[in-house]
Amino acid sequence: MPTFLDFEKPIAELEGKIAELRHLSNADDMNIAEEISRLQVKADKLLRQTYSKLTAWQKTQVARHPERPHFYDYVGALVEDFVPLAGDRSFADDKAIQGGLGRFRGTPIVIMGHEKGTDTTTRVKHNFGMAKPEGYRKAVRLMELADRFSLPVVTLVDTPGAYPGVDAEARGQAEAIARSIEACLKVKAPFVSAIIGEGGSGGAIALAAANHVIMLEYSVYSVISPEGCASILWRSATNAQEAAEALKLTAADLKALGVIDEIVPEPLGGSHRAKDQAIAALGDAIERALQSMHNQDGPTLREQRRDKFLEMGRRGLSA
Amino acid sequence: MSWLTNFVRPKIRALVRKTDVPENLWDKCPGCGQMIFHRDLEANLRVCPQCGAHMRIAVKKRLELLFDNGTYERAELPKVEFDPLKFRDRKRYSDRLKEAQSKTEEQDAIIVAHGLIGGLKAVVAAFNFDFMGGSMGAAVGEGLVAASDLAVKERAALIAIPASGGARMQEGILSLMQMPRTVIAVDRVKEAGLPFIVLLTDPTTGGVSASFAMLGDIHVSEPGAQIGFAGARVIEETIREKLPEGFQRAEYLLDHGIVDLVVARKDLPTELAKIIGLLTKQPKQEAA
Ligand SMILES: [Zn+2]
Questions:
Q1: How far apart, in whole angstroms, are the C-alpha atoms of residue A285 and residue B12?
Q2: Backbone phi and psi for residue B140, each to the nearest 5 degrees, phi listed first
Q3: What is d(CA A241, CA A262) in angstroms, rounded to the nearest whole number?
Q4: Do B230 and A202 touch (CB under 8 A)?
Q5: What is the rounded average pLDDT of the residues B103-122?
Q6: Which CATH number fits domain A60-310: 1.10.630.10, 3.30.365.10, 3.40.50.620, 3.90.226.10?
Q7: Contact A164 B81 (CB under 8 A)
Q8: Where do the H-state alpha helices sit in chain A?
Protein backbone atom coordinates (compact mmCIF):
# COMPACT_ATOMS: atom_id res chain seq x y z
CA MET A 1 0.00 0.00 0.00
CA PRO A 2 1.21 3.52 -0.73
CA THR A 3 1.94 6.08 1.95
CA PHE A 4 -1.28 8.01 2.41
CA LEU A 5 -1.44 11.77 2.68
CA ASP A 6 -3.51 13.51 5.33
CA PHE A 7 -6.41 14.27 3.03
CA GLU A 8 -6.46 10.65 1.85
CA LYS A 9 -7.40 9.26 5.27
CA PRO A 10 -10.89 8.03 4.29
CA ILE A 11 -9.34 6.24 1.30
CA ALA A 12 -6.62 4.82 3.52
CA GLU A 13 -9.23 3.41 5.88
CA LEU A 14 -11.09 1.68 3.09
CA GLU A 15 -7.95 0.27 1.53
CA GLY A 16 -6.79 -0.84 4.95
CA LYS A 17 -10.02 -2.73 5.46
CA ILE A 18 -9.66 -4.35 2.05
CA ALA A 19 -6.13 -5.45 2.82
CA GLU A 20 -7.29 -6.89 6.12
CA LEU A 21 -10.09 -8.87 4.49
CA ARG A 22 -7.74 -10.18 1.83
CA HIS A 23 -5.44 -11.35 4.56
CA LEU A 24 -8.24 -13.17 6.37
CA SER A 25 -10.14 -14.45 3.42
CA ASN A 26 -9.96 -17.94 2.22
CA ALA A 27 -10.50 -18.03 -1.47
CA ASP A 28 -13.78 -19.95 -1.30
CA ASP A 29 -15.60 -17.52 0.96
CA MET A 30 -17.95 -15.80 -1.44
CA ASN A 31 -19.20 -13.35 1.16
CA ILE A 32 -15.78 -11.96 1.87
CA ALA A 33 -14.89 -11.75 -1.83
CA GLU A 34 -18.08 -9.82 -2.44
CA GLU A 35 -17.35 -7.50 0.44
CA ILE A 36 -13.86 -6.88 -0.89
CA SER A 37 -15.07 -5.95 -4.34
CA ARG A 38 -17.80 -3.76 -2.86
CA LEU A 39 -15.22 -1.89 -0.78
CA GLN A 40 -12.85 -1.65 -3.73
CA VAL A 41 -15.51 0.04 -5.83
CA LYS A 42 -16.16 2.43 -2.97
CA ALA A 43 -12.45 3.17 -2.50
CA ASP A 44 -11.93 3.80 -6.20
CA LYS A 45 -14.89 6.12 -6.30
CA LEU A 46 -13.65 8.03 -3.28
CA LEU A 47 -10.18 8.29 -4.79
CA ARG A 48 -11.62 9.58 -8.04
CA GLN A 49 -13.78 12.10 -6.20
CA THR A 50 -10.91 13.31 -4.02
CA TYR A 51 -8.51 13.71 -6.93
CA SER A 52 -11.02 15.46 -9.14
CA LYS A 53 -11.01 18.45 -6.81
CA LEU A 54 -7.58 18.68 -5.18
CA THR A 55 -6.70 22.05 -3.73
CA ALA A 56 -3.38 23.74 -4.50
CA TRP A 57 -2.08 22.69 -1.10
CA GLN A 58 -3.15 19.07 -1.60
CA LYS A 59 -1.40 19.05 -4.97
CA THR A 60 1.71 20.37 -3.24
CA GLN A 61 1.57 17.37 -0.94
CA VAL A 62 1.14 14.96 -3.85
CA ALA A 63 4.06 16.66 -5.62
CA ARG A 64 6.19 15.97 -2.54
CA HIS A 65 4.94 12.43 -2.01
CA PRO A 66 7.89 10.31 -0.85
CA GLU A 67 7.06 7.49 -3.28
CA ARG A 68 6.61 9.74 -6.29
CA PRO A 69 8.87 8.67 -9.18
CA HIS A 70 12.14 10.59 -9.09
CA PHE A 71 14.91 11.35 -11.58
CA TYR A 72 16.43 7.86 -11.52
CA ASP A 73 13.05 6.16 -11.92
CA TYR A 74 12.59 8.07 -15.18
CA VAL A 75 16.14 7.52 -16.36
CA GLY A 76 15.94 3.83 -15.54
CA ALA A 77 12.76 3.36 -17.54
CA LEU A 78 13.26 5.80 -20.40
CA VAL A 79 16.99 6.05 -21.09
CA GLU A 80 19.23 3.38 -22.57
CA ASP A 81 23.04 3.42 -22.53
CA PHE A 82 22.99 5.96 -19.71
CA VAL A 83 26.45 7.37 -19.02
CA PRO A 84 26.39 9.32 -15.75
CA LEU A 85 28.61 12.40 -15.75
CA ALA A 86 29.98 13.82 -12.54
CA GLY A 87 31.38 17.03 -11.22
CA ASP A 88 31.82 20.70 -12.00
CA ARG A 89 35.55 20.25 -12.74
CA SER A 90 36.55 22.67 -10.04
CA PHE A 91 35.16 21.71 -6.67
CA ALA A 92 32.94 18.65 -6.31
CA ASP A 93 30.22 16.42 -7.65
CA ASP A 94 26.88 17.58 -6.32
CA LYS A 95 24.61 14.56 -5.88
CA ALA A 96 21.49 16.74 -5.79
CA ILE A 97 21.75 17.27 -9.54
CA GLN A 98 22.37 14.15 -11.59
CA GLY A 99 22.88 13.89 -15.29
CA GLY A 100 24.60 12.30 -18.19
CA LEU A 101 24.43 11.07 -21.72
CA GLY A 102 21.96 8.49 -22.89
CA ARG A 103 19.70 7.25 -25.61
CA PHE A 104 16.07 8.29 -25.33
CA ARG A 105 13.84 6.23 -27.64
CA GLY A 106 16.74 5.93 -30.01
CA THR A 107 18.02 9.51 -29.90
CA PRO A 108 21.24 10.42 -28.07
CA ILE A 109 20.51 13.18 -25.55
CA VAL A 110 21.89 14.93 -22.50
CA ILE A 111 19.57 14.39 -19.56
CA MET A 112 19.85 15.94 -16.13
CA GLY A 113 17.69 16.71 -13.15
CA HIS A 114 17.30 16.93 -9.42
CA GLU A 115 17.29 13.66 -7.49
CA LYS A 116 15.63 13.71 -4.08
CA GLY A 117 16.43 10.15 -3.02
CA THR A 118 14.04 7.40 -1.96
CA ASP A 119 14.97 6.51 1.62
CA THR A 120 16.80 8.15 4.49
CA THR A 121 20.25 7.18 3.25
CA THR A 122 19.74 8.29 -0.33
CA ARG A 123 17.83 11.42 0.69
CA VAL A 124 20.82 12.54 2.72
CA LYS A 125 23.19 11.54 -0.08
CA HIS A 126 21.24 13.66 -2.59
CA ASN A 127 20.66 16.43 -0.05
CA PHE A 128 16.88 16.13 -0.61
CA GLY A 129 17.34 17.50 -4.12
CA MET A 130 18.73 20.83 -2.90
CA ALA A 131 21.75 21.70 -5.00
CA LYS A 132 24.80 23.75 -4.13
CA PRO A 133 26.80 25.88 -6.58
CA GLU A 134 28.74 22.88 -7.86
CA GLY A 135 25.44 21.28 -8.87
CA TYR A 136 24.44 24.19 -11.06
CA ARG A 137 27.98 24.41 -12.42
CA LYS A 138 27.78 20.75 -13.39
CA ALA A 139 24.50 21.55 -15.14
CA VAL A 140 26.22 24.36 -17.05
CA ARG A 141 28.97 21.97 -18.08
CA LEU A 142 26.45 19.42 -19.34
CA MET A 143 24.49 22.05 -21.25
CA GLU A 144 27.68 23.27 -22.89
CA LEU A 145 28.47 19.70 -23.82
CA ALA A 146 25.03 19.34 -25.40
CA ASP A 147 25.56 22.60 -27.26
CA ARG A 148 28.91 21.47 -28.61
CA PHE A 149 27.51 18.22 -30.01
CA SER A 150 24.02 19.56 -30.85
CA LEU A 151 22.41 17.01 -28.56
CA PRO A 152 18.87 17.64 -27.33
CA VAL A 153 18.66 18.50 -23.63
CA VAL A 154 16.03 17.03 -21.32
CA THR A 155 15.81 18.23 -17.73
CA LEU A 156 13.64 16.77 -14.97
CA VAL A 157 12.96 19.30 -12.25
CA ASP A 158 12.18 18.19 -8.70
CA THR A 159 13.62 20.35 -5.94
CA PRO A 160 12.41 22.17 -2.84
CA GLY A 161 14.88 24.89 -3.87
CA ALA A 162 18.57 25.69 -3.90
CA TYR A 163 20.39 24.75 -0.69
CA PRO A 164 20.48 27.64 1.78
CA GLY A 165 23.78 27.18 3.56
CA VAL A 166 26.94 29.00 4.50
CA ASP A 167 29.15 26.90 2.23
CA ALA A 168 26.80 27.37 -0.72
CA GLU A 169 26.84 31.14 -0.25
CA ALA A 170 30.62 31.21 0.13
CA ARG A 171 31.01 29.47 -3.23
CA GLY A 172 28.58 31.79 -5.00
CA GLN A 173 25.15 30.15 -4.99
CA ALA A 174 23.52 33.14 -6.67
CA GLU A 175 26.15 33.31 -9.40
CA ALA A 176 25.92 29.58 -10.04
CA ILE A 177 22.13 29.72 -10.48
CA ALA A 178 22.38 32.78 -12.73
CA ARG A 179 24.95 31.03 -14.94
CA SER A 180 22.81 27.93 -15.14
CA ILE A 181 19.78 29.93 -16.32
CA GLU A 182 22.04 31.65 -18.82
CA ALA A 183 23.38 28.31 -20.05
CA CYS A 184 19.83 27.00 -20.62
CA LEU A 185 19.16 30.00 -22.81
CA LYS A 186 22.30 29.51 -24.88
CA VAL A 187 22.02 25.89 -25.96
CA LYS A 188 21.66 25.63 -29.74
CA ALA A 189 19.65 22.40 -29.64
CA PRO A 190 16.16 21.27 -28.65
CA PHE A 191 15.55 21.75 -24.92
CA VAL A 192 12.66 20.14 -23.04
CA SER A 193 12.01 20.49 -19.32
CA ALA A 194 9.55 18.61 -17.19
CA ILE A 195 8.54 19.58 -13.69
CA ILE A 196 8.02 16.08 -12.25
CA GLY A 197 7.44 17.03 -8.62
CA GLU A 198 8.40 20.24 -6.91
CA GLY A 199 9.57 23.19 -8.97
CA GLY A 200 11.15 25.15 -6.15
CA SER A 201 12.07 28.69 -7.10
CA GLY A 202 15.54 29.64 -8.39
CA GLY A 203 16.76 26.10 -7.93
CA ALA A 204 14.13 24.98 -10.44
CA ILE A 205 14.34 27.69 -13.09
CA ALA A 206 18.10 27.11 -13.15
CA LEU A 207 17.30 23.97 -15.18
CA ALA A 208 13.97 24.91 -16.72
CA ALA A 209 14.42 27.76 -19.21
CA ALA A 210 13.46 25.40 -22.03
CA ASN A 211 11.76 25.53 -25.44
CA HIS A 212 9.03 23.26 -24.18
CA VAL A 213 8.15 23.11 -20.50
CA ILE A 214 5.94 20.28 -19.29
CA MET A 215 4.34 19.88 -15.89
CA LEU A 216 2.92 16.66 -14.55
CA GLU A 217 -0.68 17.15 -13.48
CA TYR A 218 0.01 17.21 -9.73
CA SER A 219 3.40 18.86 -9.78
CA VAL A 220 3.82 22.41 -8.50
CA TYR A 221 6.10 25.23 -9.60
CA SER A 222 6.50 28.38 -7.58
CA VAL A 223 8.66 31.37 -6.74
CA ILE A 224 8.54 30.40 -3.06
CA SER A 225 7.19 27.47 -1.06
CA PRO A 226 3.68 27.96 0.33
CA GLU A 227 5.17 27.68 3.83
CA GLY A 228 7.81 30.31 3.10
CA CYS A 229 5.28 32.65 1.54
CA ALA A 230 2.87 32.20 4.45
CA SER A 231 5.53 32.90 7.04
CA ILE A 232 6.43 36.16 5.30
CA LEU A 233 3.05 37.49 4.17
CA TRP A 234 0.78 35.93 6.80
CA ARG A 235 3.53 35.88 9.43
CA SER A 236 2.71 32.23 10.13
CA ALA A 237 3.65 29.08 8.25
CA THR A 238 0.29 27.60 9.27
CA ASN A 239 -1.35 29.67 6.53
CA ALA A 240 0.41 27.58 3.88
CA GLN A 241 -2.91 26.42 2.40
CA GLU A 242 -4.01 29.97 1.67
CA ALA A 243 -0.57 30.84 0.36
CA ALA A 244 -0.64 27.83 -1.98
CA GLU A 245 -3.94 29.03 -3.45
CA ALA A 246 -2.77 32.63 -3.78
CA LEU A 247 0.54 31.72 -5.43
CA LYS A 248 -1.19 29.97 -8.37
CA LEU A 249 1.37 27.20 -8.41
CA THR A 250 -0.51 24.29 -9.96
CA ALA A 251 0.01 22.99 -13.48
CA ALA A 252 -3.39 24.31 -14.54
CA ASP A 253 -2.56 27.80 -13.21
CA LEU A 254 0.79 27.92 -14.96
CA LYS A 255 -0.72 26.75 -18.21
CA ALA A 256 -3.31 29.51 -17.98
CA LEU A 257 -0.54 32.04 -17.37
CA GLY A 258 1.37 30.85 -20.42
CA VAL A 259 4.39 29.94 -18.30
CA ILE A 260 4.31 26.25 -19.24
CA ASP A 261 3.44 24.62 -22.53
CA GLU A 262 1.87 21.30 -21.62
CA ILE A 263 0.29 19.34 -18.78
CA VAL A 264 0.76 15.59 -18.71
CA PRO A 265 -2.11 13.84 -16.87
CA GLU A 266 -1.17 11.53 -14.02
CA PRO A 267 -2.63 8.16 -13.09
CA LEU A 268 -5.57 8.26 -10.70
CA GLY A 269 -4.31 9.06 -7.22
CA GLY A 270 -0.96 10.40 -8.42
CA SER A 271 2.12 9.09 -10.22
CA HIS A 272 3.25 7.02 -7.23
CA ARG A 273 0.21 4.73 -7.58
CA ALA A 274 1.11 3.63 -11.10
CA LYS A 275 4.72 4.52 -11.68
CA ASP A 276 5.23 2.71 -14.98
CA GLN A 277 2.19 4.33 -16.49
CA ALA A 278 3.21 7.80 -15.25
CA ILE A 279 6.76 7.47 -16.52
CA ALA A 280 5.65 6.21 -19.93
CA ALA A 281 3.20 9.10 -20.29
CA LEU A 282 5.90 11.65 -19.63
CA GLY A 283 8.23 9.79 -21.99
CA ASP A 284 5.61 10.08 -24.74
CA ALA A 285 5.23 13.81 -24.12
CA ILE A 286 8.99 14.39 -24.21
CA GLU A 287 9.25 12.37 -27.40
CA ARG A 288 6.49 14.42 -29.07
CA ALA A 289 8.16 17.67 -28.01
CA LEU A 290 11.56 16.63 -29.31
CA GLN A 291 9.95 15.40 -32.51
CA SER A 292 8.30 18.78 -33.05
CA MET A 293 11.69 20.50 -32.86
CA HIS A 294 13.44 17.88 -34.93
CA ASN A 295 13.53 19.88 -38.15
CA GLN A 296 14.55 23.22 -36.66
CA ASP A 297 18.15 24.33 -36.54
CA GLY A 298 19.92 25.06 -33.27
CA PRO A 299 20.18 28.85 -33.57
CA THR A 300 16.46 29.10 -34.39
CA LEU A 301 15.53 27.02 -31.36
CA ARG A 302 17.72 29.19 -29.19
CA GLU A 303 16.06 32.36 -30.51
CA GLN A 304 12.59 30.92 -30.00
CA ARG A 305 13.50 30.04 -26.42
CA ARG A 306 14.77 33.53 -25.74
CA ASP A 307 11.77 35.19 -27.36
CA LYS A 308 9.44 33.07 -25.26
CA PHE A 309 11.06 34.02 -21.98
CA LEU A 310 11.37 37.68 -22.95
CA GLU A 311 7.56 37.79 -23.08
CA MET A 312 7.07 36.34 -19.60
CA GLY A 313 5.05 38.68 -17.44
CA ARG A 314 3.69 40.81 -20.24
CA ARG A 315 0.30 39.28 -19.58
CA GLY A 316 -1.45 37.96 -16.50
CA LEU A 317 -4.50 35.81 -15.89
CA SER A 318 -6.93 38.30 -17.38
CA ALA A 319 -5.30 38.30 -20.82
CA MET B 1 13.97 53.00 40.16
CA SER B 2 11.23 55.25 41.41
CA TRP B 3 7.84 55.67 39.87
CA LEU B 4 9.01 59.09 38.82
CA THR B 5 11.74 57.85 36.50
CA ASN B 6 9.47 55.18 35.20
CA PHE B 7 6.45 57.22 34.39
CA VAL B 8 7.25 60.86 34.37
CA ARG B 9 10.57 61.01 32.61
CA PRO B 10 9.45 59.38 29.37
CA LYS B 11 6.63 61.87 29.21
CA ILE B 12 8.97 64.77 29.66
CA ARG B 13 11.30 63.31 27.08
CA ALA B 14 8.54 62.91 24.60
CA LEU B 15 7.59 66.50 25.11
CA VAL B 16 11.13 67.72 24.63
CA ARG B 17 11.59 65.61 21.56
CA LYS B 18 8.45 66.85 19.92
CA THR B 19 9.17 70.52 20.36
CA ASP B 20 12.92 70.89 20.24
CA VAL B 21 14.51 67.90 18.55
CA PRO B 22 12.25 66.02 16.18
CA GLU B 23 13.77 62.56 15.98
CA ASN B 24 14.02 62.52 12.20
CA LEU B 25 16.70 65.18 12.41
CA TRP B 26 19.08 62.60 13.73
CA ASP B 27 20.09 59.25 12.34
CA LYS B 28 21.78 56.57 14.31
CA CYS B 29 24.67 54.94 12.48
CA PRO B 30 24.06 51.18 12.29
CA GLY B 31 27.83 50.71 12.20
CA CYS B 32 29.12 52.62 15.21
CA GLY B 33 25.96 53.87 16.92
CA GLN B 34 26.94 57.51 16.49
CA MET B 35 24.06 59.99 16.22
CA ILE B 36 24.52 61.96 13.02
CA PHE B 37 22.74 65.18 12.20
CA HIS B 38 20.46 64.48 9.25
CA ARG B 39 21.81 67.26 7.07
CA ASP B 40 25.41 66.20 7.69
CA LEU B 41 24.53 62.64 6.77
CA GLU B 42 22.90 63.72 3.51
CA ALA B 43 25.85 65.98 2.69
CA ASN B 44 28.13 63.01 3.22
CA LEU B 45 26.02 60.89 0.80
CA ARG B 46 24.54 58.96 3.73
CA VAL B 47 27.90 57.60 4.73
CA CYS B 48 28.82 57.78 8.42
CA PRO B 49 31.59 60.38 8.85
CA GLN B 50 32.81 58.45 11.89
CA CYS B 51 33.09 54.84 10.69
CA GLY B 52 32.33 54.96 6.97
CA ALA B 53 29.20 52.79 7.16
CA HIS B 54 27.16 53.14 3.96
CA MET B 55 23.47 53.61 4.67
CA ARG B 56 20.79 53.15 2.04
CA ILE B 57 20.36 56.12 -0.24
CA ALA B 58 17.25 57.19 -2.15
CA VAL B 59 17.37 56.06 -5.73
CA LYS B 60 17.07 59.56 -7.21
CA LYS B 61 19.92 60.79 -5.00
CA ARG B 62 21.99 57.92 -6.28
CA LEU B 63 21.32 58.80 -9.90
CA GLU B 64 22.22 62.43 -9.25
CA LEU B 65 25.43 61.28 -7.67
CA LEU B 66 26.41 59.02 -10.56
CA PHE B 67 25.66 61.10 -13.64
CA ASP B 68 27.81 64.06 -14.68
CA ASN B 69 26.49 67.28 -13.15
CA GLY B 70 23.69 65.24 -11.60
CA THR B 71 21.75 65.34 -14.86
CA TYR B 72 20.15 62.44 -16.58
CA GLU B 73 17.12 61.60 -18.64
CA ARG B 74 14.57 59.06 -17.58
CA ALA B 75 13.29 56.45 -19.98
CA GLU B 76 9.59 55.87 -20.04
CA LEU B 77 8.81 52.25 -19.27
CA PRO B 78 6.14 50.15 -20.93
CA LYS B 79 3.14 49.43 -18.72
CA VAL B 80 2.62 45.89 -17.56
CA GLU B 81 -0.45 44.22 -16.20
CA PHE B 82 -1.18 45.42 -12.71
CA ASP B 83 -1.55 42.52 -10.25
CA PRO B 84 -1.49 39.66 -12.76
CA LEU B 85 -2.59 36.95 -10.29
CA LYS B 86 -5.17 39.02 -8.40
CA PHE B 87 -3.05 38.11 -5.41
CA ARG B 88 -4.30 38.55 -1.92
CA ASP B 89 -2.72 37.71 1.42
CA ARG B 90 -3.87 39.52 4.53
CA LYS B 91 -4.03 42.46 2.22
CA ARG B 92 -4.67 42.84 -1.49
CA TYR B 93 -1.54 43.10 -3.60
CA SER B 94 -3.28 45.79 -5.64
CA ASP B 95 -3.63 47.83 -2.43
CA ARG B 96 0.01 47.27 -1.51
CA LEU B 97 0.97 48.45 -4.99
CA LYS B 98 -1.14 51.57 -4.74
CA GLU B 99 0.35 52.37 -1.35
CA ALA B 100 3.87 51.96 -2.64
CA GLN B 101 3.05 54.08 -5.66
CA SER B 102 1.69 56.94 -3.60
CA LYS B 103 4.54 56.68 -1.09
CA THR B 104 7.28 56.75 -3.73
CA GLU B 105 5.47 58.58 -6.53
CA GLU B 106 6.82 55.93 -8.85
CA GLN B 107 5.08 53.23 -10.88
CA ASP B 108 7.25 50.38 -9.64
CA ALA B 109 10.61 49.49 -8.13
CA ILE B 110 12.91 50.40 -11.00
CA ILE B 111 14.09 53.60 -12.67
CA VAL B 112 15.84 53.57 -16.02
CA ALA B 113 17.96 56.62 -16.70
CA HIS B 114 20.55 57.55 -19.27
CA GLY B 115 23.18 60.21 -19.54
CA LEU B 116 26.91 60.63 -19.22
CA ILE B 117 29.22 59.29 -16.54
CA GLY B 118 32.69 60.78 -16.80
CA GLY B 119 31.72 61.91 -20.28
CA LEU B 120 30.82 58.37 -21.38
CA LYS B 121 27.37 57.17 -22.40
CA ALA B 122 25.64 55.04 -19.82
CA VAL B 123 22.21 53.58 -19.23
CA VAL B 124 21.44 52.93 -15.58
CA ALA B 125 18.74 50.58 -14.33
CA ALA B 126 18.41 51.40 -10.64
CA PHE B 127 16.19 49.64 -8.13
CA ASN B 128 14.09 51.62 -5.71
CA PHE B 129 14.30 49.81 -2.39
CA ASP B 130 11.57 52.05 -0.97
CA PHE B 131 9.10 50.46 -3.38
CA MET B 132 8.15 47.12 -1.78
CA GLY B 133 11.74 46.35 -0.85
CA GLY B 134 12.89 46.66 -4.46
CA SER B 135 11.23 43.33 -5.22
CA MET B 136 11.31 42.14 -8.82
CA GLY B 137 8.05 41.53 -10.63
CA ALA B 138 7.06 41.93 -14.25
CA ALA B 139 7.40 45.73 -14.19
CA VAL B 140 10.97 45.52 -12.91
CA GLY B 141 11.74 42.88 -15.52
CA GLU B 142 10.26 45.16 -18.14
CA GLY B 143 12.52 47.94 -16.87
CA LEU B 144 15.62 45.81 -17.31
CA VAL B 145 14.54 44.76 -20.79
CA ALA B 146 13.94 48.40 -21.69
CA ALA B 147 17.28 49.46 -20.22
CA SER B 148 19.10 46.77 -22.20
CA ASP B 149 17.35 47.72 -25.42
CA LEU B 150 18.22 51.36 -24.82
CA ALA B 151 21.88 50.55 -24.13
CA VAL B 152 22.11 48.56 -27.35
CA LYS B 153 20.34 51.27 -29.35
CA GLU B 154 22.50 54.06 -27.89
CA ARG B 155 25.69 51.99 -27.93
CA ALA B 156 26.01 52.80 -24.23
CA ALA B 157 27.29 50.83 -21.27
CA LEU B 158 24.60 49.29 -19.07
CA ILE B 159 24.91 49.70 -15.33
CA ALA B 160 22.44 47.76 -13.20
CA ILE B 161 22.07 48.83 -9.58
CA PRO B 162 20.10 46.23 -7.65
CA ALA B 163 18.75 47.02 -4.19
CA SER B 164 16.30 44.24 -3.67
CA GLY B 165 15.21 41.48 -1.37
CA GLY B 166 14.47 39.29 -4.40
CA ALA B 167 11.43 38.25 -6.38
CA ARG B 168 8.03 39.86 -5.78
CA MET B 169 6.16 36.85 -4.49
CA GLN B 170 2.78 38.50 -4.99
CA GLU B 171 3.35 37.96 -8.70
CA GLY B 172 3.97 34.26 -8.11
CA ILE B 173 5.57 32.32 -10.92
CA LEU B 174 5.66 35.42 -13.12
CA SER B 175 8.16 36.97 -10.74
CA LEU B 176 10.32 33.84 -11.00
CA MET B 177 10.14 34.16 -14.78
CA GLN B 178 11.81 37.56 -14.51
CA MET B 179 15.02 35.69 -13.76
CA PRO B 180 15.47 34.17 -17.24
CA ARG B 181 13.94 37.29 -18.74
CA THR B 182 16.49 39.66 -17.22
CA VAL B 183 19.31 37.24 -18.03
CA ILE B 184 18.34 37.42 -21.70
CA ALA B 185 18.13 41.21 -21.49
CA VAL B 186 21.65 41.70 -20.16
CA ASP B 187 23.08 39.03 -22.44
CA ARG B 188 21.87 41.05 -25.40
CA VAL B 189 23.95 43.98 -24.16
CA LYS B 190 26.97 41.74 -23.74
CA GLU B 191 26.47 40.18 -27.17
CA ALA B 192 26.39 43.69 -28.66
CA GLY B 193 29.93 44.15 -27.35
CA LEU B 194 28.90 46.67 -24.73
CA PRO B 195 29.95 46.66 -21.08
CA PHE B 196 27.50 45.39 -18.52
CA ILE B 197 28.46 46.51 -15.04
CA VAL B 198 26.62 45.61 -11.86
CA LEU B 199 26.82 47.93 -8.90
CA LEU B 200 25.67 45.78 -6.00
CA THR B 201 24.08 47.79 -3.22
CA ASP B 202 22.46 46.86 0.05
CA PRO B 203 20.70 44.46 -0.19
CA THR B 204 20.99 42.23 -3.25
CA THR B 205 19.51 38.83 -2.53
CA GLY B 206 17.20 36.09 -3.79
CA GLY B 207 15.99 35.99 -7.35
CA VAL B 208 17.68 39.28 -8.18
CA SER B 209 21.14 38.16 -7.14
CA ALA B 210 20.58 34.79 -8.83
CA SER B 211 19.87 36.30 -12.23
CA PHE B 212 21.16 39.38 -14.10
CA ALA B 213 22.91 40.79 -11.00
CA MET B 214 25.55 38.05 -11.00
CA LEU B 215 26.22 38.17 -14.73
CA GLY B 216 28.09 41.46 -14.98
CA ASP B 217 31.36 41.83 -16.85
CA ILE B 218 32.42 43.61 -13.70
CA HIS B 219 30.87 43.44 -10.24
CA VAL B 220 31.35 46.54 -8.12
CA SER B 221 29.90 46.74 -4.64
CA GLU B 222 29.37 49.38 -2.03
CA PRO B 223 31.06 48.70 1.32
CA GLY B 224 29.07 46.56 3.71
CA ALA B 225 26.27 45.74 1.27
CA GLN B 226 24.47 42.50 1.97
CA ILE B 227 24.74 40.26 -1.09
CA GLY B 228 23.72 36.63 -1.33
CA PHE B 229 21.15 34.13 -2.46
CA ALA B 230 19.41 32.86 0.66
CA GLY B 231 18.47 35.27 3.42
CA ALA B 232 20.74 35.07 6.45
CA ARG B 233 17.75 34.30 8.66
CA VAL B 234 16.60 31.46 6.43
CA ILE B 235 20.06 29.94 6.58
CA GLU B 236 20.21 30.23 10.35
CA GLU B 237 16.71 28.84 10.85
CA THR B 238 16.66 25.99 8.39
CA ILE B 239 20.25 24.82 8.55
CA ARG B 240 21.02 25.89 12.10
CA GLU B 241 24.49 26.96 11.14
CA LYS B 242 26.34 29.73 12.87
CA LEU B 243 26.96 32.51 10.42
CA PRO B 244 30.57 33.65 10.13
CA GLU B 245 31.62 37.22 10.86
CA GLY B 246 30.78 39.56 8.01
CA PHE B 247 28.82 36.81 6.21
CA GLN B 248 27.24 37.93 2.91
CA ARG B 249 28.75 41.40 3.19
CA ALA B 250 30.50 43.00 0.21
CA GLU B 251 33.94 42.41 1.71
CA TYR B 252 33.12 38.72 2.29
CA LEU B 253 32.13 38.41 -1.36
CA LEU B 254 35.30 40.16 -2.42
CA ASP B 255 37.28 37.62 -0.38
CA HIS B 256 35.34 34.78 -1.97
CA GLY B 257 35.90 36.04 -5.50
CA ILE B 258 32.31 36.94 -6.26
CA VAL B 259 32.71 40.71 -6.60
CA ASP B 260 35.63 42.47 -8.27
CA LEU B 261 35.91 45.54 -6.13
CA VAL B 262 34.36 47.33 -3.20
CA VAL B 263 34.18 51.05 -3.83
CA ALA B 264 33.17 53.89 -1.50
CA ARG B 265 30.07 55.76 -2.61
CA LYS B 266 31.84 59.03 -3.29
CA ASP B 267 34.33 57.31 -5.61
CA LEU B 268 31.74 55.45 -7.67
CA PRO B 269 31.39 57.93 -10.60
CA THR B 270 35.14 58.08 -11.17
CA GLU B 271 35.62 54.36 -10.77
CA LEU B 272 32.72 53.43 -13.07
CA ALA B 273 33.89 55.92 -15.70
CA LYS B 274 37.39 54.45 -15.50
CA ILE B 275 36.07 50.91 -16.03
CA ILE B 276 33.79 51.87 -18.92
CA GLY B 277 36.62 53.89 -20.49
CA LEU B 278 38.99 50.94 -20.35
CA LEU B 279 36.47 48.40 -21.62
CA THR B 280 35.47 50.60 -24.54
CA LYS B 281 39.06 51.65 -25.30
CA GLN B 282 38.54 55.37 -24.75
CA PRO B 283 41.56 57.67 -24.84
CA LYS B 284 42.72 58.69 -21.40
CA GLN B 285 40.78 61.64 -20.03
CA GLU B 286 42.78 64.30 -18.25
CA ALA B 287 41.35 65.19 -14.87
CA ALA B 288 39.59 68.53 -15.04
ZN1 LIG C 1 29.28 54.98 11.98
A1: 74
A2: -65, -40
A3: 25
A4: no
A5: 97
A6: 3.90.226.10
A7: no
A8: 9-24, 30-52, 56-63, 71-78, 120-125, 133-148, 166-170, 173-184, 201-205, 226-229, 240-247, 251-256, 275-293, 298-310
- Top CATH class of B57-279 equals alpha beta
Domain boundaries, chain A: 6-53, 60-310
C-alpha of residue B30 to centroid of ligand 1, in Å:
6
Nearest CA distance, A51 vs chain B (angstrom): 24
Locate the domains of chain B by residue range: 20-55, 57-279
- State the count of interchain CB pairs (< 8 A) between A and B: 191
Please give the distance, rounded to the nearest whole angstrom, from the Cα atom of residue B33 to the centre of ligand 1: 6
Give the tens place of pLDDT for each residue, A170-190: 999 999 999 999 999 999 999
CB atoms within 10 A of CB B201: 29
Nearest CA distance, B188 vs chain A (angstrom): 10
**Interchain proximity A315–B84, CB inside 8 Å:** yes
pTM score, whole prediction: 0.94
ipTM of the modeled complex: 0.96
Q: Does the beta-carbon distance from A205 to B176 stay under 8 Å?
A: yes
